[in-house]
Design a protein that fits this description.
Layout (H helix, E strand, L loop, with lengths): L5 E2 L6 E7 L3 H8 L10 H11 L3 E8 L5 E11 L2 E5 L7 E4 L5 H12 L3 E5 L11 E11 L4 H7 L2 H13 L7 H18 L10 H9 L3 E8 L2 E11 L2 E9 L7 H14 L4 E5 L7 H7 L4 E11 L2 H10 L30
Parallel strand pairs: 5-7, 11-12
Antiparallel strand pairs: 1-2, 2-3, 3-4, 4-5, 4-6, 7-13, 8-12, 8-13, 9-10, 10-11
């Protein structure tokens, strides 16, 4: 891993650094005062590294003329004798403060210097800096918490309001003991994800889950029935944004999903967090997306950046894997499509 904020491609108009996971203080310092999401942070990337072993970095670009700063959190993954880069978790991409006209050129200088074949980035829908060559691949849903709790409840559809009313009338308390909730998550997460037919390459290991649950930036609440905790909802938070993080249920716990989401909305509104990112469906307008639409959120496109830095090598890897290098849909890079034998875990870009 890099150390000491390694510099490269520095010119008169900009200064660039890569900060590795071995520099948590420098990583956090680089994000101070710059609007960013949970997945830009050191804690989230360190937690993912514990489970994957794939090194992550924070790219920091400072524009000397404008005083602007841009950052991007990314991870490296090997494929045979090559390396490509990607969004390690959630939505990150480039976040910025101020004007950074040299960002794109300096970023590509980094990719050339380090020999990356290609890169895939899922951009944050609110906090991402404008970036060239993006593609809309899905829909995302966000709640503007700045309008207040009463307005958020009023705008939700009747089913949501009824579920919250029934919860209030039940007199049942929320469980907020983080130790109990963490134990529940560690016990049930893997089985729950298997039941939901999740992509196994995207399922987090125990080390990652434990680190995330211990992170003060992850808020959580649950519901208990006669047999113990039956549902948990977690929210990953920065001062600029919150994201729905985990929602796990057993037995009849799924019926409390809306009540737990409402706990998150009320808690985050009280903390003056401006946005709650609900995520999207697996595909546009599927059952998961429709459930989120019941809160009447703002709908924004999921923008992704798919970049090829070494075209000849990219085409060679795709051809060797029996994939079309010109494919614009599905997995990126195409040579990582599940079903092909490789030397590293295949990961979905979508």
């Amino acid at each position: 891993m890099l150390g000491n904020g390694q510099q490269y491609a520095s010119g008169m108009k900009s200064n660039n650094r890569l900060i590795g996971l071995d520099e948590p203080l420098a990583w956090s310092k680089a994000l101070e005062g710059l609007p960013h999401g949970y997945w830009h942070g050191w804690q989230a990337n360190q937690a993912l590294y514990l489970g994957t072993g794939q090194p992550a970095y924070l790219f920091v670009h400072d524009d000397a003329a404008s005083g602007g700063r841009a950052v991007c959190a990314f991870a490296e993954r090997r494929w045979l004798d090559t390396v490509d880069i990607f969004t390690p978790g959630g939505f990150t991409g480039f976040a910025s403060r101020g004007h950074c006209p040299g960002l794109h050129a300096d970023w590509h200088a980094l990719a050339a210097e380090r020999g990356y074949v290609c890169g895939y980035f899922a951009l944050h829908p609110v906090l991402a800096a404008q970036y060239a060559r993006t593609t809309a691949t899905n829909d995302l849903y966000l709640l503007d918490l700045r309008i207040g709790e009463a307005a958020l409840l009023e705008q939700a559809d009747l089913n949501v309001r009824r579920a919250i009313r029934d919860w209030r009338q039940s007199g049942r308390p929320y469980v907020t003991d983080k130790q109990r909730l963490t134990a529940f998550i560690l016990e049930h997460y893997a089985t729950f994800m298997q039941t939901m037919q999740a992509n196994q390459a995207a399922v987090w290991g125990t080390e990652t889950l434990s680190a995330m649950c211990a992170d003060p930036a992850v808020l959580m609440a649950g519901v208990a029935d006669e047999s113990g905790i039956c549902a948990v909802y977690t929210f990953a938070v920065t001062p600029y944004d919150a994201e729905c993080h985990l929602n796990i249920s057993v037995r009849d716990g799924r019926r409390y999903t809306r009540a737990l989401l409402w706990w998150g909305i009320r808690t985050l509104t009280g903390l003056n967090i401006p946005w709650l990112h609900l995520g999207g469906g697996v595909v546009r307008n599927d059952a998961i997306a429709q459930a989120k639409q019941r809160f009447r959120p703002i709908c924004l496109p999921l923008l992704t950046a798919r970049e090829i830095y070494r075209p000849d090598e990219f085409e060679r890897l795709c051809r060797n894997a029996g994939r079309d290098p010109l494919s614009a849909a599905g997995f990126f890079p195409p040579y990582r499509t599940p079903g092909h034998k490789d030397q590293s875990p295949a990961q979905s870009a979508d």
